Amino acid sequence: MDIKSFLANLLDFIFPPICSGCKNKLVQGELFICTICLHSFPKTDYPDLRDNPITHRFIPAIPITYGLALYKLKKQSLLEQVLFAMKYKNQPKIGRFLAMQCGNIWHNDGWVETIDAIIPIPLHKKRLQQRGYNQSDFFAQGLSAALHIPIDLTCVKRIRNTPSQTKEKKETRITNLKDAFTIPQPNLILDKHLLLVDDILTTGATLASCAKVLLEQGAKQVSVAAIAVVEDV
């Protein structure tokens, strides 16, 4: 055993990895989330990707093509704890792990072949400096690897540092997000079908604001995907 493996095993013995949900010790083969918690997360299983609770939050104002989310998110749930750790406790790799769970389910669906690029919702540079990472980037990276779709981290830029939207109503969120995004090189998105992704879909205001700009600047279609959707909003 080399020194690197020895030190890794020693650290696991002293500080055993724990589940981000239930806080129990993970067993060999588990990453970030234990098998019991992972299987307890309620799936959406929407039968129609064009007409479901996700697309209803955009259409008719924003003509979203497909709306996807793997899980339903409820307050004070284990899934909420996991996503909180991903977003605020320096565990962004959870996003990549959950993206692989999405990919395992979605990879054979016909819509996958229609997507030209995956675009994560960008953070403003000040917010990125404060947090140190964009959790949506990790989700996008995992989807890209699982679905074999290229990822584009540059075609959308966030030019306004909007306040936290967590506790705001939908109307306030929409106002706060006005002119928040720009497309530096519209020719790069021209006539493309883009999959816009974020970690959690609540009202959909952030995704809608970004999707609107993409469509106005020449994208042929925009679909949206999230790890989880809050259904009771």
Give a quick summary of the entry.
The chain folds into 2 domains: 1-40, no CATH class; 42-229, Rossmann fold. The chain is built from 8 helices and 6 strands, in the order ααβααβααβαββαβ. It has helices at 3-14, 35-40, 78-88, 93-106, 125-131, 135-147, 170-176, 205-216, and strands at 67-72, 117-120, 157-158, 181-182, 193-201, 221-229.
What is the mean pLDDT? Answer: 89
- Computed structural class: alpha/beta
Q: Which strand order do you get reading across the main beta sheet?
A: 1-6-5-2
What's the gyration radius in Å? Answer: 18 Å
Verbal overview:
It is a single chain. By secondary structure, this protein is α/β, with parallel strands linked by helices. The chain has 2 domains: 1-40, no CATH class; 42-229, Rossmann fold. 35% of the residues lie in helices and 14% in strands. It has 8 helices and 6 strands, in the order ααβααβααβαββαβ. It has helices at residues 3-14, 35-40, 78-88, 93-106, 125-131, 135-147, 170-176, 205-216, and strands spanning 67-72, 117-120, 157-158, 181-182, 193-201, 221-229. The strands form 2 sheets. The protein has a 4-stranded parallel sheet with strand order 1-6-5-2. Helix 8 links the parallel strand 5 and strand 6. Helix 4 (93-106) packs parallel to helix 6 (135-147). The longest helix has 14 residues, at 93-106. The mean pLDDT is 89.
Structural descriptors:
233 residues; Rossmann fold; 2 domains; four-stranded parallel sheet; 6 strands; 35% helix
Question: How is the topology of this model organized?
Answer:
Elements (H helix, E strand, L loop, with lengths): L2 H12 L20 H6 L26 E6 L5 H11 L4 H14 L10 E4 L4 H7 L3 H13 L9 E2 L11 H7 L4 E2 L10 E9 L3 H12 L4 E9 L4
Helix pairs in contact: 4-6
